[in-house]
């Protein structure tokens, strides 16, 4: 078992969710020790919501859960990458496939990730 270093960053470690098949970066969130253990226990991504100050099972409201296929831990044991199968197609609470749906290129901002759902319909 890998022991993560939760002490360096106030009890949280950054967790990058990446599509296991395509390699697309879907989102960045944070895990505390409880979220880490729930993720290992269930095989689905759990995070710590910094805004709500609570454990968050990804997809609990939208149904767009993340099935964890593999976990990579960096050399300092303080950042992880979750290789996931994104159920429902959208990782972003704004309804996009990826939270990184905006691209700045040549001074112009454009959307580079498809919008999958309308958040006002999903999060009533």
TrEMBL record:
Cofactor(s) the protein requires to work: Mg(2+); Zn(2+)
Cited SUPFAM superfamilies: HisI-like (SSF141734)
UniProt binding sites for Zn(2+): 75, 92, 99
MF annotations from Gene Ontology: magnesium ion binding; phosphoribosyl-AMP cyclohydrolase activity; phosphoribosyl-ATP diphosphatase activity; zinc ion binding
Superkingdom field: Bacteria
Cofactor mode of binding and number, as noted: Binds 1 Mg(2+) ion per subunit. Binds 1 zinc ion per subunit.
Location relative to the cell: Cytoplasm
Pfam family, one: PRA-CH
InterPro entries linked to this entry: PRA-CH, PRib_AMP_CycHydrolase_dom, PRib_AMP_CycHydrolase_sf
Domain Phosphoribosyl-AMP cyclohydrolase: start-end pairs: 27-101
Pathway: Amino-acid biosynthesis; L-histidine biosynthesis; L-histidine from 5-phospho-alpha-D-ribose 1-diphosphate: step 2/9; Amino-acid biosynthesis; L-histidine biosynthesis; L-histidine from 5-phospho-alpha-D-ribose 1-diphosphate: step 3/9
Top-level EC class as recorded in UniProt: hydrolase
Residues in the signal sequence: none
Residues annotated for Mg(2+) binding in this entry: 74, 76, 78
EC code: 3.5.4.19
Recorded catalytic activity of this chain's protein: 1-(5-phospho-beta-D-ribosyl)-5'-AMP + H2O = 1-(5-phospho-beta-D-ribosyl)-5-[(5-phospho-beta-D-ribosylamino)methylideneamino]imidazole-4-carboxamide; 1-(5-phospho-beta-D-ribosyl)-ATP + H2O = 1-(5-phospho-beta-D-ribosyl)-5'-AMP + diphosphate + H(+)
Keywords for the protein's UniProt record, in alphabetical order: Amino-acid biosynthesis, Cytoplasm, Histidine biosynthesis, Hydrolase, Magnesium, Metal-binding, Zinc
Matching HAMAP family: HisI
Similarity field: In the C-terminal section; belongs to the PRA-PH family.
Function as written in the Swiss-Prot or TrEMBL entry: Catalyzes the hydrolysis of the adenine ring of phosphoribosyl-AMP.
Quaternary data: Homodimer.
The protein's name in its UniProt record: Phosphoribosyl-AMP cyclohydrolase
């Amino acid at each position: 078992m890998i022991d993560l270093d939760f002490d360096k960053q106030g009890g949280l470690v950054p967790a990058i969710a990446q599509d296991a098949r395509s390699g697309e970066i879907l989102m960045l969130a944070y895990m505390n020790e409880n979220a880490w253990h729930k993720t290992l226990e269930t095989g689905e991504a759990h995070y710590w919501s910094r805004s709500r100050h609570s454990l968050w099972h990804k997809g609990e409201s939208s149904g767009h859960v993340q099935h964890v296929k593999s976990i990579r831990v960096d050399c300092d044991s303080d950042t992880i990458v979750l290789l996931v199968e994104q159920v429902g197609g959208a990782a972003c609470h704004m309804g996009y496939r990826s939270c990184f749906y905006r691209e700045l290129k040549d001074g112009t901002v454009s959307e580079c990730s498809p919008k999958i759902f309308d958040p006002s319909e999903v999060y009533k």
